[in-house]
Amino acid sequence: MSDDIKKYFNGLLHKVSGLYVIQITDRDGVPLLRVSHSQEKNVDFALMPSLIPTFTTASDQASKLGLGRNKTIISMYSNYQVVQMNKLPLILTFVGAEDCNTGHILALEHQVDGYLEDIKMAVTES
Amino acid sequence: MEQQLEKVLNEIVTQQDTVGALLANRQGLCLGAKGNINPNVSGIGMAISEQVAKLEPNSSVPATICLYSGSKRCVIQKDGEITGIIYKQATTGSTAASN
């Protein structure tokens, strides 16, 4: 089962050009699944312990703006872009090149829902 | 600010057989959509146009892609930073031509 999910996300990674990493964590940043291009740039910052909790806090604060629950935060940097999706109890993080197709990453949201359900189940049971 | 964009989209959707139209920027994000078209297709449409552009890397003329499905056709054209995606109703004539 886990191999199937990993294979699926690896396929997704190769479908979007310029995408370096897809990472699924829980809301505290505990990594559950990570797929990356081994030959691509060093994107270890995606594993930084502060990245996910910071997103969780930002997302919680953004939800208070009166626009409804915050779903996605896109962060553009000079060399990277980070797209983080709030799929509580899971956080989905995409790291790509600065010129990567953001719209394509956002369109993946609905495609991955089915696979996330299996992981969600595992997280809530444990 | 986007009045010009709205005007262009309005002009496109009033054309014959047009179901919906959408414009995307170079990040694949939807700049505007009119008619019956899902704004989420902007990223995928842009990805398709980028892949097709690789077929003729030296071409100065922007490629136009036409995807035929059962009842609709999708026309995609990338010109510089902007990608246009248009959904059209498949007319009997165009369906016959595609066959």
TrEMBL record, chain A:
Family the entry assigns: Belongs to the LAMTOR3 family.
Protein name: Ragulator complex protein LAMTOR3 homolog
Gene Ontology biological-process annotations: cellular response to amino acid stimulus; positive regulation of TOR signaling
SMART domains: MAPKK1_Int
Naturally occurring in which organism (per UniProt): Drosophila albomicans
One Pfam family, short name: MAPKK1_Int
InterPro entries per UniProt: LAMTOR3
One CC-aspect GO term: Ragulator complex
Transmembrane portions of the chain: none
TrEMBL record, chain B:
Signal peptide range: none
GO cellular component terms listed in the entry, alphabetical order: lysosome; Ragulator complex
Any single biological process term in GO: positive regulation of TORC1 signaling
Pfam families in the record: LAMTOR5
Keyword Nuclease attributed: no
Annotated keywords: Cytoplasm, Lysosome
Keyword tRNA-binding in record: no
Family per similarity comment: Belongs to the LAMTOR5 family.
Name the record gives this protein: Late endosomal/lysosomal adaptor and MAPK and MTOR activator 5
Taxonomy of the source species: Eukaryota, Metazoa, Ecdysozoa, Arthropoda, Hexapoda
Gene (UniProt): LOC117577922
